[in-house]
Amino acid sequence: MRILITGGAGFIGSHLCDYLFKKGHEVICMDNLITGSISNIAHLRGDNFKFYKHDVTEFIYLEGGLSFVLHFASPASPIDYIKYPIQTLKVGALGTHKTLGLAKDKGAAYLLASTSEIYGDPLISPQREDYWGNVNPIGPRGVYDEAKRFAEAMVMAYHSYHKVDTRIARIFNTYGPRMRRDDGRAIPTFIHQALTGEDLTVYGDGTQTRSFCYIDDMVEGIYSLINSSINEPVNLGNPEEMSILDLASLIIELTGSKSKIVHRPLPKDDPRIRQPDISRARSLLNWEPKIDLQEGLKMTIGWFRR
Ligand code: UDP
Questions:
Q1: I need a surface site. Which of 114, 152, 214, 229 has the fewest CB within 10 A?
Q2: Cα separation of 265 and 286, whole Å?
Q3: Which whole number is the average pLDDT over 144-159?
Q4: pLDDT 10s digits, 248-278
Q5: E strands of 37-164, at which residues?
Q6: Domain CATH for 194
Q7: Site to substitute for ligand 1 among 141, 187, 210, 263, most atoms within 8 A of C-beta
Q8: Domain presence at residue 250
Q9: Is 255 a domain residue?
Q10: 176 by DSSP, 3-state: which?
């Protein structure tokens, strides 16, 4: 296949580039590098890999055919989308429109990287795909949550009206090598703090929960979805749920750090709970995560040490 990946120099995007390249596909990576980094893809060379620095909210011109468009471009961590609120809204809205238009023009299939954030601060747990969510449109996370909700609506409209063959992956918290230590998310922040002897900053009392999926499992899940014919949204994530306080303690233990845990104010609209119901992925994709949190954290800590 000849595949375009927007956001291909980002965390998940670059791992997808690696995976698809290794499978022998021709990979075209596009990124404006505001949160992505060339160092994530610098090792990919050859006729089957091309990189274009481009902002996908602007018209996209590509020569030749395309089999698939994977739309992964977006700031994706709370501090990034608070730093780039307009870009976040634009890439979810205009960027989704441009990339869908390209897919339609080329007769390519399309996959949107959506997010568990579309469930907001959920009132039910675990979250199934038929839950509509609890989102504050004007809160600090609104720029990301609402852009992705709009993006899902746009994808479904191109599917039903233009008959584009689309997929929607609702991606839950994912971690692993290549996360930026300054992206503000819990795992890279805690690992960096533990390795440098700083206190681990747990927001609030730390009883809020998340469910963390290792990047290799996530990429396998996305690839299964690409190869399926499921047009409805599919949750992808690891259902193993834990509190942020327990996560911080586990990272101190696994790094052998002498760091302590300190508490900081809980950011506004921080979801209290988050856990994917992955029955749909299990039954329709025959996919589920294989790497448990301890194992994944050890690999991630090893990468951060290096
Ligand atoms: N968190 C924390 N300390 C940090 C960074 C994050 O306690 O230094 C908390 C954050 O408030 C949230 C959880 O960890 O409750 C996960 O945050 P992250 O930014 O990783 O992802 P998201 O909130 O988007 O799931």
A1: 229
A2: 40
A3: 98
A4: 999 999 999 999 999 999 999 999 999 999 9
A5: 49-53, 68-71, 109-115
A6: 3.90.25.10
A7: 210
A8: yes
A9: yes
A10: coil
